[in-house]
Amino acid sequence: MIAINEDTVKKEVTSFEDLWDSEFKNSLVVLDDQRILIGIGNKLQGESMNATDPKVIQKSKELLMDLLPNIKAFDSDSPKTMLVNGEAKAGIVWGAEAYLAEKENPSIKTVLPNEGSNIWMDNFVIPVGAPNKKNAEAFIDFILKPEISAQIIEDFPYANPNRAAHELIDEDIMTHPAVYSNEEFLKKSDIFKDIEDAILEYDRAWSEIKQ
């Protein structure tokens, strides 16, 4: 999603497309993630973030090349840092980072882009043949306890599917668009899928963008 500093951004931002404006020259922090960035290019063409047509991917590459003058940094680890300290006017960031940035600097606001974005999830997985399967299951059971799950989201405010924990989570987190996006936005967003051999086209395009 998009996070902007309302103290420094003059333009009204409602979509990813707005970030191509010259107002953002050398002032964006964006995720260092090819599926998301190229996926945004796909979205701007009215296509899925999972598009596999080489022509669509090529056009997305060209769009992102045009965006490069506005990009100050690629950062997937802590994009909120540049927003909070004022180095970046706006960014394409993780939802939790947008929320935490606003907590540190109230001038930072979340924008749910008109195009939608990507829907993703983290999972616990126990490999087949794991030597400590019972310990792994005990750990997962512990993490899923409502009170533990609620504590985790206070520090890592990503949308939490543990319904039993919801009543223990701060209302500000439960109602914030950076954490729990509205239904309209989710309907316009895509769940990442395995794009099989098309990932090679994404790799090639990303290498050319980042060279």
From TrEMBL:
Its main location: periplasm. The keyword Heme does not apply. Pfam families: SBP_bac_8. Signal peptide: none annotated. It is found in: Periplasm. It comes from the Bacteria. This is Uncharacterized protein. The keyword Transport applies. Keywords: Periplasm, Signal, Transport.
